Amino acid sequence: MAVQYQPSGGTAAEISASIETGIRTGGLDAGAPLPPVRTLAVTLGVSPATVAAAYRALRERGLIETAGRGGTRIRPRPPVARRTVHALPVPEGVVDLATGGPDPHLLPGLARHLIRLSHDLPTGGYERGGPLPELLDLAGERFAADGIPSGRLTVTGGALDGIERALVAHLRPGDRVAVEDPGWANLLDLVAALGLTAVPMPVDDEGPTEAGLAAALAAGVAALVVTGRAQNPTGAFVTRGRAAALRRRLQGYREILVLEDDHAAELAHEPAHPLAGSTGSWAYVRSLSKPYGPDLRMALVAGDDTTVARIEGRMRLGTGWVSTVLQRLAVELWRDPETRDTVARARDLYAVRRQALRDAFDGMPTHGVSGINVWVPVADETSMVAGLREDGVAVAPGSMYRLVSPPAIRITTAALDPRDAPRVAGAVLRRAAGTVRRQV
């Protein structure tokens, strides 16, 4: 815990508010340890039950986590906006392979489509809101081509928005959710913020393992979240055989909610092998952010009638609907042959860049059979990330994406020049060799 910040308060609400203030103002950094319950109780002159209640409230809101003997700590990315930003900037001259987004130079242009739309956008009031029929028709054709079961369709404000709404529609705080480990950092943060309990499923190059799913089901999970291809951070791809094995495991669990995140969409070379329909409640979420740009905050969702009806019902109570301007733009992009060619070119280049880095590791174990990331197991994440910055390469620490899986780093190859791959891999190999020598 930062020396300059000391939690205060005489009630559980006051203590939890004080710790939240510390997070918001930067007095408590991500990963900072909090005092043991009894120690803080003595310091504040309150009962241990009061401090325990404060910690429980913070844990339910995803602000802190307890890791056994590791004690209680601030979560890596607590769901509280900070007054000051503590993100480590990427210095000039350092190759940024940490960010995780698509290459801006490979995104299709939007200007000419927006100009055309500006001439014939309809005007109207709230009664015109909701999913556009022409967008749903196109989405239905694309889902059917990928073997997604026919179901009800809707539009949400991005992949995570769709996943959150589906989870909230079915689950309650305290329910268990099976998640990939390593898995998408935003999803892990969301599960914690909703007060749900993450149950880790090991991931190999073919996705969640059959044994991992079996263990999660035995643990009584109410939902399962899977990334079928281009998994972030490992690049896993759920093969036809693995999908069949997972579907067999799900037999007899009709009440479980199965969510699938297809964020790569048209950027994936690999075919989809969905789990959708293997249980009574399901949703398949396909984002437009990676192929068409992160600012196109939209995802198409296919699901069973009850799940989609609940998602739309909750949207009507809040945002109402995704902007019809964005929906019309999506229709334009999907219908445009030039845009299709641009996305196809990006798909091919991403594959070349990813494979160039994997080849450069020359036998060192790496993962990344699809997508824009390469996952590299390492002995010490902290020293590796810091050392690589000294070498002019910024990568992401695996701790952001892990629950109980071993240490690693994530290297995003979206904007990597293949000619730089040997330099990047060489820096990792040298640092890894140095770690081994120190341990010996």
Kindly summarize this structure in a few lines.
By secondary structure, the chain is an alpha/beta fold. It has helices spanning 12-25, 37-44, 48-60, 111-118, 133-145, 159-170, 185-193, 210-218, 240-250, 289-292, 305-316, 324-335, 337-360, 381-390, 421-439, and strands spanning 64-66, 72-74, 95-96, 152-156, 176-181, 197-204, 207-208, 223-227, 257-262, 281-287, 299-303, 373-377, 393-394, 396-397, 408-412.
Present the secondary structure layout.
Layout: H1 12-25, H2 37-44, H3 48-60, E1 64-66, E2 72-74, E3 95-96, H4 111-118, H5 133-145, E4 152-156, H6 159-170, E5 176-181, H7 185-193, E6 197-204, E7 207-208, H8 210-218, E8 223-227, H9 240-250, E9 257-262, E10 281-287, H10 289-292, E11 299-303, H11 305-316, H12 324-335, H13 337-360, E12 373-377, H14 381-390, E13 393-394, E14 396-397, E15 408-412, H15 421-439
Parallel strand pairs: 3-13, 5-6, 5-8, 8-9, 9-10
Antiparallel strand pairs: 1-2, 4-11, 6-7, 10-11, 12-15, 14-15
